[in-house]
Amino acid sequence: MKNTVWYDCFLDALFERFPKKTQLVEALMDLLHIEREAAYRRLRNHVPFSIHEIVKISSAWNISLDEITGNSSGKTSFLMQPIDYVNPSKQEIRFLQHIVQSINNLKDFHDTELLYICNKLPRQLLAGYGFLNQFHLFKWMYNYGNEKKPVPFGQVIISEEMLQLTADYHKAIKSVHNTNFIFDRMIFDHLVSDICYFHSIKMITDEEKELIKKDLFALLDYLLDVATHGCYPETKNKVNLYISDLKVDTNYSYISTNRLNICSVHVFDKYEIYTLNTEMAVNLKLWMQLKKRTSIQISEVDNRSRVEFFTKQQQIVDML
Question: Among residues 258, 301, 1, which one has the least CA distance to residue 112?
Fold first, then answer.
């Protein structure tokens, strides 16, 4: 087994998930309940992973065995990595740290492009604002949490570790050299409507609503700065901001380099399904690029449309 090409590809996939061997060893120890030396022996190819272990790893880390072995079913596999954002396991924390590190590594690739089409404010932007980020988590818990009794906004506790990871993610995402956002015109209407709903059923207090409102105004000021100058003020990396003339049904995105294409469809507020399938990634990238045809660019150019859009959003937020 250990001399076959697909097995080498499987090992490569493990190191793509955890580039540092020490992190990979720790993750294997947790997942397979094996000793440290046993994990090293498997990675050194002295002892092969058992079929049971390969299946368990592939399932837990969303590694497609079909793509590794070259066996095509004619279908495209989409993967999802569920995360407990309230009480994450050590493995989930390491996965999130891996995501942040992977994004940081992209700063060395000037051809990297991120395109995000959304009818909800994306995590890249929410992560920079404490009360907006808390509302995002609160809404996720309310809709999809396992709690028997809904937890009010004020009782949502985010650990220091998760707060740091969120801050690291928010900083890392600005290292991408080229970013495009295409917003649904109603994106702030939807968010304000959600906040008003939870306020009306007493899950958000008057004081908490004002703190979220303050964050929303701060985000609008920041986005106006980004749109005016066409870049993130912190890194000067390029940002194009578009407003869609047609309704956006859900959030979806791709991140692309000359070495890698990953396309994602965002579901259940904080999850995403994604594919590394080359053909599907190319198609999704093309479809997303075509969305620009029915959108207006308001970054740098078209000052009138930019002022009109942000003035309207400020009026919407002011209604809170």
Answer: 258
